[in-house]
Amino acid sequence: MTLQQFLLVLRARYLVVLLTLVITVGLTGTVSLLLPRQYTASAAVVVDVKAPDMVSGMMLQGMMAPGYMATQVDIIQSDRVARTVVKLLKMDENPTVRQQWQTEAKGKGQIADWLGAALQKDLSVKPSRESTVIQVEYTAADPEFAAMVANAFAQGYIDVNLDLQVAPARQYAAFFDEQTKAARLKLERAQQALSDYQQQHGITSADERLDFETAKLNEISSQLTLIQGQTTDSQSKRGTSQTDTLAEVMQSPLINGLKADISRLEARLTESSVNLGQNHPQTQRSRAELETLKTQLADETRRITHSIETTFQVNRAREGQLLSALQKQKTRVLQLNKQRDELNVLRRDIESAQRSFELVSQRASQTNIASQTNQTNVAVLNPATPPAQPSRPRVFLNVLVSIFLGTLSGVGIALLLELRDRRVRCAEDLSEALHMPVLGQIGAAAPSSSTQASA
Fold it and tell me: Could you tell me which residue ranges the Tyrosine-protein kinase G-rich domain spans (predicted)?
């Protein structure tokens, strides 16, 4: 069918097209006017994806994920938010609503789930493409109710979002509380073990005690070294046969005095022997005095020799005592070293338990604060207000659509009627009907001049 044929068909059947258009537009307008008015209230919520964590102060990487906003939309449309809205509006406490639920659901399930499913049917959530603002729209016959439900969905989303953030923190808080108790018990046991060990061994200050015992060991060692030197010196003096050459003898003032007296008497005796003779009483007295001085010298030398022997014996005994004391002191110092090592192990256990307790306690404090937070990264940007104009039905838009559809339907009906009852409206129709070419075409005759004149 050519365009000319199509236009000729429309001109021939314009009444059908016009009637279809009028009927369509009339029905659409009538139905649009008869349909109950629906009002759509919209509440805007903004999601701060760059908000840091309230406890750690660090940026949460999950908020920067591409699917984060889509997840928030799914949360708003979830059954949990719908049940929260039911509780916020206290719809489940309405006797009329409960009666309707008994009638329709036969009392099966939970009334909150039934009401939530009914509310979700008229809910529309539209995220913004280039921002983090989400439009929460609700449609109802009452504008006040539509605005109330839209605001309730926004608040329910905030409550659920906060609960989703706080719930893991609460679980972690309970876990870290148990860990804190275990760490505190471990620390107390380590401290008690150190205290028991100190009481058992009578330790007040291990380092000071070890320093004192070490100094005492060094002193005993010094004394032993000195005594050993003195013993060796005494032993060497004991073995000599020339007692006159001993230092003690040579340095004795008494012996030196006796030797001087002996020398003077010997000189006097020699002089007396020469001048007076051997038998002279003065010579005899001088000889007796000389013998007495020599006897005193021998006795004094013998006494010094005996004192060296006594000193040797005393030094030997003292050396044995010091050796025994040194061995005991070494054992004591070694024991103190062992106790100090054991104390260090116990102290390290305490330090390790203290660090663990502080770390777990810090984490428990953080999670406890996080579990009690009432802040979230979602806020209501624009609360819903009762709309002044209904959102449905859209009479003007419906009429425009009905005009287009009515025209299209009328043209379609006209073409169907033309196909069922084919008419010859032009040369192309005749050629198609007879399957013969058209050789000529006689146009409509123009009126003659005589006819015009007579007329």
Answer: 339-416
